[in-house]
Structure formats: C-alpha cells, structure tokens
Write a structure and sequence with these properties.
single chain; 110 residues; alpha+beta; three-stranded mixed sheet; 6 helices; 48% helix; globular
Length: 110
C-alpha cells in the first residue's frame, strides 16, 4: 500500500467511518487472494463499513515505467502462477469492465 493512502486513512479515520466507502484493488492476483490484500491493508473499522470491495484486474503500461518499476513487475510475476510470463516490454491490460461497473453501481445505488 502506498504510504500516502495509509497516511490519509490514519489521519481521517473517524471521519471516514461515517462515510459511504468502497475498496478496490488492481493487482496481479485474482479472486479471494486479491481481495485479501484489501483485508490485510485497511483497518477493520473501515472494512466493516465498506459497502463494496472488488478486484478490477491488472494493467501494466511498461512504456510509462522506469527501470525499477519494470524490474519489480518482472520479479513479482516470476513467482506468480500465470501461464504467460511478463517480459516487461509488452503492455498488458486485463481489467474487468464488468467488475468495475458492478462496483460503481453498488456505490451509486447506496
């Protein structure tokens, strides 16, 4: 988790507990494994009030990454169970429009 996000929710925890919130993640994992990253990175007080939690998929724009970012993605993917390896050259987009729309509908209808 980015330190800016953690700093924001720590600073505003009491106010956020009274808001309609949802959590989403874009990562190289799928299903319960991806959602567990949300569960493990946010405080229970916020997670208990969340009206939506979702995994949107992954996207890597290697042409916009620096060397360290490309290296990190390649190293993490090497330990992944994915059938195709990530070479750090070809951009990848596996975002789920269906999950994004479902999440938006839940947020908008609550």
């Amino acid at each position: 988790m980015r330190k800016e996000v953690k700093g924001f929710y720590e600073k505003n925890l009491n106010e956020l507990k009274n808001k309609k919130i949802g959590f989403y993640i874009c990562c190289m994992r799928e299903g319960a494994e991806a959602l567990s990253q949300i569960e493990n990175n946010f405080p229970k007080e916020l997670l208990g009030n969340a009206i939506a939690k979702e995994h949107f998929g992954e996207e890597f724009s290697f042409d916009k990454m620096n060397f360290l970012e490309k290296f990190t993605v390649k190293m993490v993917s090497r330990n992944d169970d994915k059938k195709e390896s990530i070479d750090g050259k070809k951009n990848i987009s596996n975002l789920s429009e269906d999950r994004i729309k479902k999440f938006a509908q839940i947020i908008n209808n609550t």
